Amino acid sequence: MANRLETGYRAKLRWLLAKVRPRRLDFGVDLLLRRARALSEREAVPISEALARVYEFTRWRVKKRLERTAAVPPRRAAPRRLAGAAALPL
Fold it and tell me: Do the domain assignments include residue 44?
């Protein structure tokens, strides 16, 4: 049963973390699953509850991160005539 739960939460966490485009998506998912296992052992709660708590906390953090990055105006691209010069090494 725990294996099925972890497989399901692995997919949910992967989808959630992909929204913030981390460099190492698999590492992030594995880290969150390890945190859920540690929480389950530390607080003596079922793994299902620990996975749900880690998922909800991560969902909240992703939401906050997306709100912060949406508030930052996008960078403007260099004018076309300078784009080639910008690629040249100094």
Answer: yes
SS3 content of the chain, % helix, strand, coil (to 5): 75, 0, 25
Contacts of 67-70 spanning 24+ positions with Cβ under 8 A: none
Joined together, the tokens standing for residue 35 give 């945190």
Instruction: Tell me the average confidence (pLDDT) per consecutive run of 10 residues in the chain, 90 residues long.
Output: 85 94 94 96 95 96 90 64 57
Q: Which residue segment(s) compose the domain that 60 sits in? A: 2-71
Q: How many domains does the chain have?
A: 1
Going by C-alpha positions, the residue among 4, 58, 72, 50 that lies closest to residue 28 is: 58
CA gap 78, 75 in Å, rounded: 9
